[in-house]
Structures are given as C-alpha cells and as structure tokens.
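Hey, weird one. I pasted the Leucyl aminopeptidase family protein sequence into the form twice and got a warning about non-standard characters only the second time. First submission, copied straight from the form history:
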Amino acid sequence: MTDFAPLLQPDRDQTATPIHLVDKAAFEEWAKGRPSEDRALLSAHRFDGKDAGAFVILPRPNGSFEVVVAVKDAATLGPWCLAKLGGALPAGAYKLSSGQLGQAGLGWLLAQHRFEGYKSAPKPPVGDRILLTDEPARIDEAVRLARATALVRDLVDTPANDLGPAELEAAAKTLADEYGGQLRVTKGDDLAQQFPMVQAVGQAATADRAPRMIEVEWGNPDHPRVAIVGKGVCFDSGGLDIKPASGMRLMKKDMGGAAHALACAQLIASARLPVRLHLLIPAVENAVSGSAFRPGDIIRSRQGLTVEIDNTDAEGRLILGDALTRAAEEKPQLVVDFATLTGAARIALGPDLPAMFANDEALAGELEKVSTEVFDPVWRLPLWDGYEDMLKSDVADIVNSGGAMAGTITAALFLRRFVPGDIPWVHLDTFAWSPTAKPGRPKGGDALGLRAVFSLLQRRFAQP
C-alpha cells in the first residue's frame, strides 16, 4: 500500500513550488497582482477561476514555475480540490500560497495511490509529489483517512479468486496484530450452531472458501462499546436464484461492507478513540452447488427468529442478521453496519449516495450534518413501518425478501428485527464503487460513507 505519510509534511520554509488557490469571486483581484505575462497566459488558457479543478502552470524566468488552480471556495477547502494536481504535477515539493490546507490533503494523497498489482506492465512511477502545509495538525488525520480509503479500494478491487473469507480473516488479523486487538473466528460446526444464517448462505462454497464469523475487539473494556458490522459476501452468484451475467460482473465488490468496516476499525484504532470496539464481519461466498440453501427453506437465526427464504439472492441481510444479533448481545452504545445490500438503493440514489437508515432521530440528524461537513454525503431513507407486511411469511416468522417495491426499505426493516430498539443503530447501504473516474477517485472500489461515520464517532466519543 502507498506510504502516504511522506507526501504531506509541515512547511518549515523548505524550497517548494507555490500553488495559488483562487475561486471565481477572488480571481480578478488576484490576477491584478500578477505579472503581465501571467495574465496573458491565463487569458490564453481562458482561465477565470470558475471551473473548479482547472489549473495553469505559470513559468518563471529562472526555469521554475508556479501553479494556479481554481477551487469552488478558497475559504473552505474540500477533500478533492487538489486531487487533480496531486495526480498531474511532476514530482517535487509544493506549498499552498494561502498556507491553509483544510480537507484538501486527502485528495492530494489519494491521487497518488494506484491499484496496479495485476498489470504485467504498470505505469512507471513519477516520484513523490509532496505538499507542505502551515496546518500540521491536519496531517495525521489526512494520512489516516487516506490509508483507510485506500484499504477499502484495494480490498474491493481485488478479484474474488484472490479474496475469499480466509483473506478477509487475514485482513482482520493484520488489524488486530497492528493495534493490539483480540481476534475470534467462528467456523465449521461451531458456526452452524452459533450463526446458522451465516452457515446457510456460505455452505455451498468449496472447503477453502468456507463461511466464518470474524470478530475483533479492541480498546479499554471500560470505555463505551461501539459495534461496527460489515457484510462480507466475497462473491455473490445469487445462489440458486442465480444472477444474470450482467448482475454478476461486479460481485467481487459484494464484500464492500466488510472493507468499510475494516477501514472504520482501522481509523478508530489508529486515532485511539476511547471506545471498546467490536468489529464483526460475517464472511461467505454465495455459491451454487448441491448443498446450496434453497428458496422455501426455513432457517432459524441466532436470535431465534425463523426466516423463510423467498430469494437466495437476498443473502446479505441474512448474514447481517446474525452479526447484528451478536453485536447487540454486548449492549453497545452504538451499532453501525455497512453493506452493499440492494440494487434498489442504487436505482433510487445512484452510485454516490449511500442510503442511510437509523432508529434514532438525533443520531440520524447528526450523521446527516457531519456527512455534509466532511463532503461524504449520505441520504436518509425511512424505516417505514407500513411496509412491514411485505416481510410476512405464511409458515415462518419472516421472509428474507419483500419483493422489488421499496426493496431498500424492506431490507432495512428486515435488519431492524435483529437490533433491540433501545440500541442506537445506523445502517448504510453503500455502493462501494465508482463507475467513472474523477480526480483522486479512479474507477473501481471506493469508500462511500466511511468518513461520515468516522466523523460521527469522533464527535460522540473523542475526549475533549
């Protein structure tokens, strides 16, 4: 993984190329103070500060250069305003003429991250682009967020033949070893007894991709307990209700919830938040074989609720149900789950907006607020009680699929059955994928909702 720490450093008057940030409101006044040759070059490029992300190289007589880049608001720097520069400028040291970094360090760092390990001829490195800042207090946070985002991207981008339940377990072990956490893995006969819905979904996979429940605990047991749950379906064929080829093409990313949960746990531990973290990842492959669970089967969950299988392609909510039950048994002060759960969420909100559900009004409002502040938006959908009837079964306590209508909501209502009402809970139905490339955000796996949740945790649990 990219070593981000050297790429963002305090400004100690080192020699560096200046970067000037201008927005459309300030551009004309700024341009008046520039040499005539700069104004001519800016005019030739039709640069007027209005097109955020556009930049121009301003050569100096001694062979050096300066850079001017347009930003949406020079007073409030979002995470992606320098991302284009971070990926395009030659290697070297740069500094912001304003000195203020804001949140822009994240995009600068991530623009230099690549996932090219599978290419026989990867692009040659251009060298490090180092950004100097007058806000050294922001450096550690930007590096932590870049590491966590890169972890999500790398895990999601890794093909399923190289990332199964065992590899998710290995990633959790790496996390536990690095930060002094305790790893617990349940599989085999113990899994069937303790987490029957996880066993049912994963039982058709080959032995080397056997299902398991992965748990990591970290932090002082006296601190408030926080549970982070991530859906770990390493590949989703749809099971016996098999997906069409087009629907299966990106299903290596169906463990995107687990990737988010691992990254969130890494952020919590690296920031030393005063919480007792409980990370839970039910890890499976939803495969097709003679031992696959079937439509019409009835499975008894860990909680004791019986679930009739209406659709084997609605498997993520099954494994999450057992994981949420386990999390709730420890009486946490907050539960957050991440899941690439429904196509209905993408139809409703597109790829950029995770659907957010919460059983607590104050919690939902707080998450919406911080998601805007950190430029990591989420969009709340209702836990609409009127749709509970869609989950009724004639022969069991509940069915696992409410059908196509309101599919995102009925999936969330299914999960709610496994969370006691007195435990604050947030569910994020995230895409974990960027279908098109943007500066700092290449096409492929991506973290959506991660920074918002971490910011919420910081505000709720960080010591003053």
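That's the output from the first submission. The warning seems to come from a hidden character in my clipboard, not from the data itself. The mean pLDDT is 95.
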